[in-house]
Amino acid sequence: MKFEIQQEELQKALDTIANVVPSKTTLPILTCVLMDATEGQLKLSATNLDISITTTTSEVDIKDEGKIAIPADKFISFVRTLRSGVVKFAQKGEKINLSCGSARMTQVTMNVEEYPALKVLEETNGLDMEANLLTEMINETSYSVSRDETRPALMGINWEITPDSLTLVATDAHRLSRSHRSMEWTFNENRSMIVDTAGLRHLPRVVANMKNDKDSSGNVTIFMGENQLSFRAGNTVLHARLLEGPFPDYNAVIPKDNDKNVTVDKSDLAQAIRRVSIMADRITSQIRVGVESGHMELTATGADGAKSEDQIQISYEGDAMEIGFNYSYLQDILKNIKADTVVLSLNDSQSAALIKPVTDEGNETGLLCLLMPLRLAGE
User: Fold this and answer.
1) Under a CB-based contact definition with an 8 Å cutoff, are residues 242 and 222 in contact?
2) How far apart, in whole angstroms, are the C-alpha atoms of residue 266 and residue 105?
3) N or C: which end of the chain has fewer CB within 10 A?
């Protein structure tokens, strides 16, 4: 193998795939980047067996075609430190020589034949979607997935695809996030699948790098395979595995009778939580939220008797009530809401709360968050 490529182009490709390379694995070959120079293109790939990613560039001058598996850690770090200019690669036996200006590096490669077969893109049922919208929906839900390995279905995001909509749902049984958008695409059936969150979390980075592609349309194409969900974004293809279900009937836990609607400025609420939570019990992470006409009072009490409280203005005309929340969960919700205003829909201190962002015109955005309450002391 022998080729030349601009440092910026090589670094962009490596940055796209680098985070998929596992830092710890029982298969040393997986710590490598697979580089394939053929037919006027350089293809770089990485996999941890659950997730795989491939990106391609034609901005390369291939002298001799070939394929190598090069340990990623030091290689990627070295490329990132190089000055701008042409990077030259030349393979000699089991070693690869790299040069850029006065900088030189020699690294021993691994047996490319040991590299696992990469997942193949099943180019059927392709659905085009605006890239930023897709990453927004993933960000709106991914923080709610469970970390409990005994409930693997809850470690993924449930996708519901219909002829005119896309709905993503995640829950860990304490909280739930549902992101729904109307879509205009050619699809004539209903599909439901649970997608591994670890794979989906790589998509925002892929989309960010896609914006630098000259021929990028700004869309991601989604392909539904038998065991995987694949995404083509510009010159990059990402594969995320599907998890076995079933996913819980989330509609059954969303309350229908929460009639106490509290409208509050998201920033005011987030700052008040940040201040009050400093004194909260580190085990329960509980804050007490009291609402009455015109204002909300937030209180936290520590195990050592320390106490903090704050008050903010709200729009609310119902009966006074109090409810307890895990402040960390509430902060996660607010961090992943783009709108400036949120509506908390409450019923009583023992019922789940619904949190919805709204636009300046008062319209819902398609995101609904559910948060289970904590029992208040004395109840």
Assistant:
1) no
2) 51
3) C
Distances (CA, A) of 155 to 5, 25, 170, 198, 372: 40, 21, 8, 9, 18
**Beta-bridge partner residues of 57:** 42
Distance, CA of 267 to CA of 264 (rounded, Å): 9
Of 351, 207, 215, 331, the residue nearest 266 (C-alpha): 331
Helix (H, G, I), strand (E, B) or coil at 247: coil
pTM score above 0.85: yes
Residue 212's pLDDT is 66
Contact 87, 75 (CB under 8 A): no
Query: In the structure encoding, which two tokens stand for residue 58, read together?
Result: 């034609």
Q: Cα separation of 153 and 246, whole Å?
A: 7
Structural domains of the chain ordered from first start: 2-114 (3.10.150.10), 127-250 (3.10.150.10), 254-371 (3.10.150.10)
pLDDT band at residue 2 using 50, 70 and 90 as cut-offs = very high
> Is the Cα dihedral 332, 334, 335, 339 positive or negative?
positive
Token look-up 């987030």 returns 270
> What single letter denotes the amino acid at residue 329?
Y
pLDDT exceeds cutoff 90 at 213: no
- Enumerate residues 6+ apart whose C-beta is below 8 A from 363: none
| C-alpha torsion sign, points 299, 302, 305, 307 | negative
